[in-house]
Amino acid sequence: MAVTPVAADRDYPRMIAEAEHIEPAPRRVRATMGGEWIFDSTRARYVWEWPYYPQYYVPVEDIDERFLVDEHHEQRLREGMARSYGLHAGGVDRPGTVRVFGTEAIDGVAGTARFDWDALDAWYEEDEQVFVHPRNPYVRVDALRSHRHVRASLEGITLAESATPVLVFETGLPTRYYFDRTDVDFGHLVPTGTQTACPYKGVTGSYWSVRIGAEVRDGDQDLAWAYDFPTRHVLPIAGLVAFYNEKVDIDVDGLRLPRPRTHFFS
């Protein structure tokens, strides 16, 4: 059996799919724009354009072509020749947001269309709305209550400390440590208006920058967040606060963890 060496720069499993990997998607996938259903498919494909997550490529036959606007422009992409289309639905125009691949494209992509995710108002897997990108079938996310002693700090100043944190294990990312709000020193946190979304956890309810001294320094913005109403898969983190391990120091049971390097902070 082949054994992959343990990486010195991470303590979590990496993504296993490579770019250009293609798989069938067994889920019913739908999307709306301007109050109209743009497509409805049970034959979509997962196409990995980079290793972290796939995009949906939808068979042309499953798209309501009334909403496609031919822009009469073709371009050669990595997957093959694609024709550019815009979208028009419900009085809304979104030009240049669809690429339709012809018969010369690679297997699995020929005869499909790739939609810009943000061009559509909402995406659904079965009857559940999904955010940002498709859920990666090779990713597992678990939120587990723990009795490890965890401390988050910056320049020696404690931001949060708990003996009962919730640990979120997500394939391809470092463990995230979530603290009850009573274990967080909000005297060093400054609320911001930032909101982000995650296909596995939902939409954030709050973000905070970290203030050390009199003001928030450059690079310390939006380092903590909370999901007030997370998806059911990670309900234990509801209302709890987490920090980017990449930017603050995390001690677990007295041991300082090395700061990981991820695609969030390149």
Question: What are the key terms here?
Answer:
44% strand, mainly beta, elongated, single chain, 266 residues, Metal Binding Protein, Guanine Nucleotide Exchange Factor, Chain A, 2 domains, seven-stranded antiparallel β-sheet
Q: TL;DR?
A:
With 266 residues, the protein is mainly β. The chain has no helices and 24 strands.
Indicate the topology.
Layout: E1 22-24, E2 29-33, E3 36-41, E4 45-50, E5 53-59, E6 68-77, E7 80-89, E8 92-101, E9 112-115, E10 122-125, E11 128-130, E12 141-145, E13 150-154, E14 157-162, E15 166-170, E16 176-179, E17 189-192, E18 197-198, E19 202-203, E20 206-210, E21 224-226, E22 241-243, E23 249-252, E24 255-256
Antiparallel strand pairs: 1-4, 2-3, 2-10, 4-5, 5-9, 6-7, 7-8, 8-9, 10-11, 12-15, 13-14, 13-23, 15-16, 16-22, 17-20, 18-19, 20-21, 21-22, 23-24
Strand content: 35-45%
Structural class label: mainly beta
- Helix and strand element order: EEEEEEEEEEEEEEEEEEEEEEEE
CATH superfamily of the largest domain: Domain of unknown function (DUF427)
CATH topology of the largest domain: Metal Binding Protein, Guanine Nucleotide Exchange Factor, Chain A
Q: What is the architecture of the largest domain at the second tier of CATH?
A: Beta Complex
Q: Share of helix among residues?
A: under 10%
Quote the distance from N terminus to C terminus. Answer: 34 Å
Q: Helix tally?
A: 0
The level 1 CATH classification of the largest domain is Mainly Beta
Radius of gyration: 21 Å
Number of strands: 24
